Each structure stands twice: as C-alpha cells, then as structure tokens.
Amino acid sequence: MANSRTQKLGEIFDKATSSNQIHEGVLFVENTSGDFSYSKGYGGKELDSPLLMASITKLFTTTCILALLEQGKLSLDDKVTTYFDHSVLSGIHVYGGEEYSFDLTISDLLFQISGLPDVFEEGKESAKIRGINEDFYTTFDDMVALVRKLNPHFAPRTTKKAYYADINFDMLGEIIEKVTNLTLAEAYKQFIVEPLTLKNTYLPECENDFVPNIYYQNKAIYRPKFIMSSRASGGCITTARELMIFMKAFFGGNLFNKALFEKLPLYNKLQASMGPIYYGSGYMRIPLNGLITLFMGKGELMGHSGSTGSFAFYYPITDLFFVGDLNQMGNPALPIRLSMKLAMMTK
Predict the structure, then answer these.
(1) Where along the chain do its domains lie?
(2) Of 172, 260, 261, 346, which one has the fewest beta carbons inside 10 Å?
(3) Tens digits of per-residue pLDDT, 36-61?
(4) Parallel/antiparallel/unpaired status of strands 268-269 and 278-280
(5) For the segment 263-287, what is each residue's pLDDT rounded down to a tens digit?
(6) Which CATH number fits domain 2-345: 3.40.710.10, 3.40.50.720, 1.10.8.60, 3.40.50.2300?
C-alpha cells in the first residue's frame, strides 16, 4: 500500500514539474505520526532548501491571533478602532454611500469578510504587477492609502460573502504588534518558531536576511524589499521540512487551544477568481466533492497556498499533510491543482 501510494505521489509531482512553467520544486508528504513519509525535489530544491511561504504566512498570523485570544488578550469581536487611530481607518471602507471603516472587527479580518479590496491584485497600481517589474518597499500606511483608492466589494459581514484581501492580514499583523508590544518577527518567534524549535524559519527584517529568488514565468527575480513589505500577509521564509512541523502543530492543537479553534465554524466561498476555495478561521478550505473534481472527491483540504507556488494542506480523510513549493508566480492556481490531485490519488 505504501509503495503504491509513494509511486502515485511521485508520478503526480513529476507531471507537475514537467511543465515548462516549473523550474524548481519540492514536495513533502507525511501523516500525523510520521510513519508514512515521502519527499521529492526538483531542479535542485530539496527538503531543507529555503522557500518563500508567501500567503501561507497568514497561518502564522492566525496562530498568533488565536494564541492571544486563548490568553484573553484580545477578542474576535474587538473593533479595529481599539487598535488604530481614527485617521488611519478613515475612508478605507465606504460602500453604498456608507462608511464602515470604524465598524470592522478582528473577526472580519480573520475570516476575510470585511469586504475590503485587495491591493495585491486590484487596480492599475496593483502590488503584484509592480512587484514583477521592480523591487520596492511598502509601509503599512502606504498600503492603507492604496486601499482608499479602491472600492470595497460589500458591507462587512454580508451573508455568504468573503473576499480575499491581504490588507485584512496586514491589519492583523499590526494588531499583534500592539497587543504583544513585540515586532511581528518577535511574535512569530515567541508563538511559533521557539515552541517548535524551528531553525530555518523567519520573517526577514533587514538586507542581511536571506530571501530566495521567485520565478515569474521564465525569469528568476529577486525582490527582498517586496517580501519584507509583505510581513503578516506573505513575508515568511521556511523550508519544506519545517513547514511540515508547523502544519502538524497548527492542526494538532499544539500552538493554541484546538477546542477554541473548532468553535469558529464560519466559512464562506471566496470571489470567483479564487476557484473552489472557502475561507474562515484564518485558513483555506477546498472541498473535493464539487464540480471541479467532477464530484469524484471526498472531504476537503485545509490549509493555505501562496501566490508564488507554495502550498501547505492537511487532508483529514487520509490523515496526510502535503507541503512544498512550485516557485512560479505566473500561475497561482498551480499549487492548488497539485494539492487537489495529490489528495484525490490518496483517498
């Protein structure tokens, strides 16, 4: 059974990396106990090679929020006005002629139900388009200013609505710093890196911190300032080996109270461009029993992917974790497709 499973995993990964779009990659699959383990690298990328977590960093931010919730240092019902000056929030959410900027809560940010626009993907000044062409640093205030130029998509907490926007997690990162009186890098160390004894996982803060190249189509680009700007929404560096350790801890209840986590069941489908993905409690859920799999799958993947090809998912039905990286910014759907195929073949 194990040999058959490893063969299938290898075949799926080989097919994914045979694409002209993929120049390097790594896959690591394990069950909770670790008695089943499979890994494979491509193009020189291996288990201990640095990889950009990109939006998987949101799971780190979620971890800190849930740990602080457990400690009673914040509430998901807290209005963001508790943590930000009036001048910072003013004008960021005006929808249908009404201003909702001062009505936003931590929960709205964590569940991606604020309705705020996404400066990474949207507008003529989208950070993604600019980042492909040049390296630049953006402050939190800069991001807020860009949000003000875009239109929100719905009023906060509109029934069955969710919209994926980095600014939600950028704001959560600022809140973590204010509540803990630590930098975000220090908070990640305290709540994640040190408890799990991770040696190669960090949030880059200066030019001396190593940042790996990202591929955009056939070009390897180096964007340290851009990555350092991403912080709570997408700035962490790790390895496949250490990402596996984190994922097991995240879903195993080793970093915060699992019962608390499981009491947060609100999930809504994201915008159409995000495919079959639902969002809630600070992570993605991808059902495998829908049209995209021709109703042939079972259960769901839980975790996160990144726009640069990173992926980290748990598939409870087979108790398998899939983590790794395809390092391709030109097609953010690739890691989602790969993760779904891996799950479908191991059911």
Answers:
(1) 2-345
(2) 260
(3) 999 999 999 999 999 999 999 999 99
(4) antiparallel
(5) 776 678 888 878 789 998 899 999 9
(6) 3.40.710.10
